[in-house]
Please model this.
Amino acid sequence: MNELKEIEDEIRSCKKCPLHLSRKNAVPGEGGISSGVMFVGEAPGYNEDIQGRPFVGAAGKLLTELIERVLGFKRSEVYITNVVKCRPPNNRDPEESEIEICSQYLERQIKAIRPSIVISLGRHSTLYFLSKAGVKARGIMSVRGKPYKVRISGVSFTLFPTIHPAAALYNPNQRSIIEEDFKRIRNLLGGITRFF
Ligand code: URA
Ligand code: SF4
Model:
């Protein structure tokens, strides 16, 4: 079995933090790795918990549409996951301690995938990555829409933060922001080189 599948299986049976008590299914992540493109959200929601798959609700529908229409990938060609792999009760924010414990899986996934670009979706995911890069950020709006160089678990990649697709669902201003950011990602992908 390959390393990525092994990590996914470990996540499905993980009991390292209290979130395992209330989950229906852990959500390890899914998708292809040869594109070198990885999307990282915050944590599974209601639908993801039921299906054990990332971004399968309304926000996921928008994410999938942007990946396919603006970037020109099939959803199955990019890897999609979250910082925290089990749904927090009532979709509350994940706690610091939960992020700390669970992010070891994300770091192992990054090592196994060796992405050339990671798109962080929303504040929690973005602040997690930027803190690893030693960048202090006040909020998502001041850092979104531009690339950062990040190195995690010995893997160097471009981090591109954008807003969470859930925020763009019912707000036309946010909808144009995420659309604009995806166009910038498309341009960036045109000139990107992989680091291995
Ligand atoms: N929101 C997230 O951050 N992740 C998902 O998988 C679904 C919704
Ligand atoms: Fe394990 Fe992460 Fe789920 Fe906690 S959230 S039980 S650390 S997989």
Q: What stands out?
A: The domain at 2-189 is CATH 3.40.470.10 (Uracil-DNA Glycosylase, subunit E). The beta strands are 30-31, 37-41, 79-82, 117-121, 148-152, 155-162.
